[in-house]
Amino acid sequence: MPSTPPVAPRWRRGAVPFLLALLCAGGCASKTDLTAAIQVTTPSSTPSTAPMLTTTTGAPPQPTMEVADVVDGRTLVSSDGRTVQIAGLAVPGECWARAATEFTRKTLNGKTVKYSTTFGTSAVVIMPDGSDFAVEAVRRGMGRAEPGSTTSLKSAQSAAEQAGLGLWGGECGGKDTVDQAGAQNQKQSGSDDVYFASCDAARRAGLGPIVTGQPGYGKHLDPDGDGIACDR
C-alpha cells in the first residue's frame, strides 16, 4: 500500500500563519509609525517681510552765542567773554574800518547768532535770518574778502566792486587808505555835492549803503543816525 504523508497537527497548521501575521503587523506598524514621525522641512526661500530695526543719529545742534560787543568789522565779543573772529573777512582798512565797524555793530550787537568754528577763534557767523554775515558784509561793501576765500564771498565782492558800494566807492575807491592828494581832488571835483532825495534814488544810481563822508550821504537818508545811510 502506498504510504500516506503524515498530516500536521491542526494547531501547527494554524500557528504558522498566525505568527507570520503577528510579525508582519508589528514590523509594518513600526515602519509606518516611523515614517509618519519623521517630517522633513526645508527653509523657505521667500525673504522675510518683517521690518528691520534701524537707528538714526541726528546732527548735533549748531552752537549759538549772544553778541555783547563789536571790536571791529570782523571781531565780536560774546556775552560770556569769548572773542570770535568772523571767518573770510580781511583786516579792515583804515579808510573803511569805521564804516565796517558801525555796520557790524548795527547788524549783530545784542543778537543771538549761530556759529561754526573753522580754526582757533575764527568762525562762520550765521545771522538770525539764516544768512552768512561775512557774505552780507562783503556784498554791501562793508568788508573785504580774504585771499583764497569761498566762492560766495568772491561773488559778493565782485558785485559790490562793480556797483561801487561801500569801500569800493567814495574816497576809498577800493583802497585801504586814501592819500591827501586824492581826497583834495575829490573835494575840488564837487563829488561831495552829490545829493539824493531818497534811498530809492540812491539805489537807482547804484549806491547804498552810503557811509558818512561818501558822496551822496545825507542825514535825511540816515534816520537812525548810525552814520550809514540807505542800509536797509
Automatic annotation (TrEMBL):
Regions that span the bilayer: none
Comp. bias (Low complexity): 42-59
Domain TNase-like: 61-170
Stored InterPro entries: Excalibur_Ca-bd_domain, SNase_OB-fold_sf, Staphylococal_nuclease_OB-fold
Residue ranges occupied by any Excalibur calcium-binding domain in the UniProt entry: 195-231
Basic and acidic residues: compositionally biased ranges: 219-232
Record's signal peptide: 1-29
A Pfam family recorded for this sequence: Excalibur
Top-rank taxon: Bacteria
Keyword terms of this UniProt record: Signal
Region entry Disordered, spans: 42-62, 213-232
Protein's recorded name: Excalibur calcium-binding domain-containing protein
